[in-house]
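Late entry, evening session. Most of the bench is empty. Finally got around to the prediction I had been postponing all week. Sequence below, unchanged from the version circulated by S.P.
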Amino acid sequence: MEVLILSSCGISQFPSFLKGLHSLERVYISNNNIKGKVPEWFWSLPHLSIADLVNNSFTGFEGSGEVLVNSSMKILDLALNHFKGPFPNPPHSLTVLSAWNNSFTGSIPLAICNQTMLTLLDLSYNNFTSSIPPCLSNFQTSLIVVNLRKNNLEGSLPDMCYDGALLRTLDVGFNQLSGKLPRSLLSCTSLKFLSVDNNKIKDPFPFWLKALPYLQALTLRSNRFYGPLSPSGQGLFAFPELHILEVSYNNFTGSLPPNYFVNWKASSLQMNEDGGLYMGDNSIPDYNYEDTIDLQYKGLFMEQGKVLSSYATIDFSGNRLEGQIPESIGLLYLAIFLYLSGNQLSGTIPKGLERLSYLAYISVAHNQLKGEIPQGTQITGQAKSSFEGNAGLCGLPLEQSCFGSNAPPMQQPEEEKEEEEEEVLNWNVSWIFNRTLHCFIQAGVARQDNWSV
């Protein structure tokens, strides 16, 4: 027997009969309730190359910290368990190491530098400390995904790419990283997904990243980035494939020129041309990876367990931007979420927003805006909170009429407003997400099984 599939079988103990199956190459025992430690003999099976132990209740490994080293393992998936303590030194033959959502502690093992063909490293949602191993730049011709999100890593982000690098996803959000973004990221010419949110990085806005031809998602939220978002002397703000730009809660200043969004080819927000439904990578043999991201919705940050490749959001909230909202914002035809709240923007809201027929949610709250709120269906269906904190605004959905005190009352019953808002949101989101897909998944909820059998 070469392949054994016991996934979702209600197993509560590690199947001891595997010990005699010396021809086994692939073992799938995910989505059970197996407790305790993985037995030492399991790693001695001579031909074992794939082990899927996802979503059980494992707590550790029998044997020493070298128990995995001599294994023939190529793909090891330990995600969604209760592993704790230091991570053992991995096998030299490993190409995929996925151990997200556990309780591993200590440093990321430096023995990982001894791999020869590492393709994916996902250690997110653990308690790793210390710094990111600089040796990850050794895997220029193999490494596609690095996800170290939600750990306690410190120091600066090391150089990850040189000429010829294949890296497509780099996610180091929710750590304690400081310093600047390494300019070597310019050599990550295949990069599609870059997230450094919720760290302590202090740097001007990285206009230079617009040279990356495939970058679809850039998340800088809750750092110490500063300066203008308008590239003075650097040409138009043109990221050719950008769908998600999340720069909220930094120290960005200055104004946005009227033509700011003119050259946003992808964020005029055309559909993704590569045919993939979700952002991620399916080029790794026997393994599918999907990106995750925390995005704002009505003031709450929620983890999106799958990021639709057609998803389009811009979040500039919580900075110190001033001046008028650019008229060119009306060119973002397929935008779903727009956040400009908590700045110092002034003037009127561009009428072009009426044309954004797929807009599910917009917030321009707590600025210095004035005049009539555009009255397109997608605007009037928003909650009042999307426009509050602007003393000069009037028109639906606010109670303040633009036509004086003799105009008919504009206040809607609370229940009716909530129903209308929900209808607008559902109509837009269902077009993108289909009726059976749920877009928002709270942190800690399991991602879909990543295996291809």
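Two things to note before I forget:
The chain has two helices and 32 strands.
The chain has a mean pLDDT of 85.
Will write this up properly tomorrow.
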